[in-house]
Amino acid sequence: MATKAQTFRLALVQCLPGSNKVKNLQRAAEMVREAASNGAQVVSLPECFNSPYGTRYFPEYCEPVPDGDSTRMLSELAKETKTYLIGGSIPEKYQDKIYNTCSVFGPDGNQLALYRKLHLFDIDVPGKIKFTESDVLSPGQTPQTFDTEWCKFGLGICYDARFPELAGLYRNRGCKVLVYPGAFNMTTGPAHWELLARARSVDCQVYTAFCSVARDESATYVAWGHSLIVSPW
Ligand SMILES: O=C(O)CCC(=O)C(=O)O
Asked: Is the pTM value of this prediction over 0.90?
């Protein structure tokens, strides 16, 4: 009798989105293909993989989901690589609002989840960083999970990782892996990125994956990078 595989390989794609959306999509796709060819069965992209990160960019780069170029690419790519593809996030245009949205596709190319960032990143650390996503974005309303043959996954985006209640809700729903596409910065990154991933894992006894964009010192928003996967231990 064939037994179900208990293990799988999860890849985090730490790409470096620039101002050219077509190139951002091409590069992300190349990196997903590379991950799949190295045996990854689940692949995540980072937050805002199709655009630079910043409130000034969201209105320009936003697209409908699932009928925009970025989401279509994700669906085709999941099917081509036969992976579960967690599409990081993109600015999503829906009616008259913009959301920070993650869509997930299965190996058959079908959409399994659409998650809109629940907790918007509004902070002011005097002299260091001020960022107000809520100037432009609207918050999502619903946690989202999706199932694979190995386990259930829970989704969050970046700042969402600061809220243990969301992770606990996913744990209570039976998730074994929490995936947070992200883009921390050079102030909160060194202080909290790894700490938060390890905290969510230990307090919920789950695997936690933080997938960041790569660092570009010349960008208007300099990301911390350091994508990581943490075990329950
Ligand atoms: O929580 C933080 O320090 C960073 C959050 C962030 O960059 C985001 O939510 O996009």
From this structure: yes
